[in-house]
Design a protein that fits this description.
Blueprint: E1 3-4, E2 10-14, H1 43-53, E3 56-57, E4 61-65, H2 75-84, E5 88-93, H3 102-105, E6 111-115, H4 120-127, H5 132-148, E7 154-161, H6 169-176, E8 183-188, H7 194-208, H8 226-242, E9 247-250, H9 255-263, H10 278-281, E10 284-285, E11 290-292, E12 298-301, H11 307-311, H12 314-326, E13 343-345, E14 350-353, E15 356-359, E16 366-369, E17 374-379, E18 391-392, H13 399-405, E19 411-414
Parallel strand pairs: 1-3, 2-4, 2-10, 4-5, 5-6, 6-7, 7-8, 8-9
Antiparallel strand pairs: 10-11, 11-12, 13-16, 14-15, 16-17, 17-18, 17-19
Helix pairs in contact: 1-2, 6-8, 8-9
């Protein structure tokens, strides 16, 4: 029986935590996040997992990550299995080993996202290995050769903005946009501090009765102060003047949010109306089979239980429940997952919205939110259960579009008005 979902799930598959590089900003190897899953699953174990989630509509997206995913010893076989089951696949890689598997990948419509953090000297310094930039560019040229020959593979570039590269972001953009890139993302540094982690641990003990097991602390100590924030803001502005491709800043922080984000100021005030969707739609399957629905929050293991049983167990739902009832944790504002998508969870009971009651079915519990906590509910055309009208998210809206929507069946509400009835 096909499981019908109102959204596309995106699985993050950490195939291995081994890596051939040692990047300065990588939180996987920082003080707060050690290699919590050291054993790589076999291809047979991955195939059993694929079987359990393949009969879903829409088909889940599979992000093959690591560590460095191309170091997984049976990558060729595993990749073939993703195609056998018809998954939409994205490979997130440092790009050094791509030539090993490019012939196979080029026969599919896979998206390849390469992490590239500056021009040659800067990139190699961040990676702590000379020659990586040259090797990656050679592989990018090979990707372009396949594209010219008719391959449907797509190339994306992700660049983390750092004190190490902030002075050359504009120059890097002008260089890399000459390549055949679908999208280029300039990503804010994702980081925490011992003080913030300690505060988060207190919050988790109070709300979940267990310690916080996440981290987000890079191995390199960066000097982040107001001067750096001003320099970064100017660098971001300069990108707009030279950009000739599809490029994004992620997270898309507003001007007033950037300083708070980097200097740990008023983190609880950043997008108070938003709740991270990761605990609902973005499972991470670690290399040993552990499943998490938030950084460090292990809720089960697919080698011991069926995925869907794990995804709906008490450990998974307790996090969702506290997010619904109490809002985000302070550290959420420092995690890029918090800014992915623009949805919020609503209890699958009744919500009081503008003094009206809206019934939501158990199967569908997402409503749209903006940074200022305004919600838009839109009624879905198909009913998934008797006498229940589900809701689907809309695209980003403007004040004008909100006024338009108010003339239809759509309901607009403020976060403070969302209360379980």
């Amino acid at each position: 029986m096909v499981l019908e979902l109102p959204f596309e799930m995106e699985f993050i598959l950490s195939l291995t935590y081994r890596c051939n590089l040692n990047c300065s900003m990588c939180t996987q190897y920082g003080e707060g996040f050690k290699q919590q899953a050291t054993d790589d699953m076999t291809v047979e174990q991955w195939e059993a997992f694929f079987e359990s989630v393949s009969d879903v509509n829409p088909k889940p997206k599979m992000l093959l990550m690591g560590g460095e995913p191309l170091l997984y010893k049976d990558f060729e076989k595993l990749f073939a299995l993703t195609q056998k089951h018809g998954f939409n696949v994205q490979i997130v890689t440092n790009g050094v080993l791509l030539d090993r598997y490019l012939e196979q990948i080029a026969k599919t419509n896979t998206t390849i996202t390469i992490s590239l953090d500056g021009l040659e000297q800067t990139h190699d310094s961040i990676r702590n290995r000379k020659g990586t930039f040259k090797k990656v560019m050679e592989n990018i040229d090979k990707i372009e050769a396949h594209q010219k020959a008719g391959s449907k593979i797509e190339l994306c570039i992700n660049c983390v903005m750092l004190p190490d590269n902030v002075d050359e972001l504009s120059e890097f953009l002008q260089f890399i946009q000459k390549k055949n890139i679908k999208t280029l993302t300039f990503q804010h540094l994702q980081f925490s501090s011992p003080e913030l982690n300690k505060h988060t641990d207190t919050q988790w003990m109070k709300r979940l009765n267990k310690p916080y097991a996440g981290g987000l602390i890079p191995p390199k100590h960066y000097k982040i102060d107001k001067n750096y924030v001003e320099k970064l803001t100017k660098a971001i502005d300069s990108l707009k003047d030279v950009c000739k491709t599809t490029a994004f800043i992620f997270p898309a922080l507003e001007d007033e949010e950037i300083e708070n984000y980097y200097l740990d100021k008023n983190l609880d005030e950043i997008r108070t109306g938003r709740i991270c969707t990761t605990p609902w739609v973005n499972p991470t399957i670690h290399s040993n089979g552990d499943v998490s629905n938030c950084i460090g929050n292990i809720i089960g293991n697919i080698n011991q239980e069926d995925f869907w049983t794990i995804w709906n167990n008490e450990k998974a739902n307790s996090l969702r429940q506290t997010l619904c009832q109490n809002g985000k944790f302070t550290i959420c504002a420092k995690c890029c997952n918090f800014y992915k998508g623009n949805f919020i969870y609503a209890p699958a009971t009744l919500l009081r919205i503008n003094n009206k009651l809206l019934s939501l079915p158990d199967e569908i519990n997402f409503i749209k939110s903006s940074k200022n906590g305004v919600f838009i509910l839109d009624k879905y055309r198909d009913k998934t259960s008797e006498n229940a009208t589900p809701v689907i998210p809309l695209e980003t809206f403007t004040p004008a579009s909100v006024r338009n929507l108010q003339k239809t069946e759509t309901i607009v509400a403020k976060f403070s008005e969302l209360k379980g009835a």
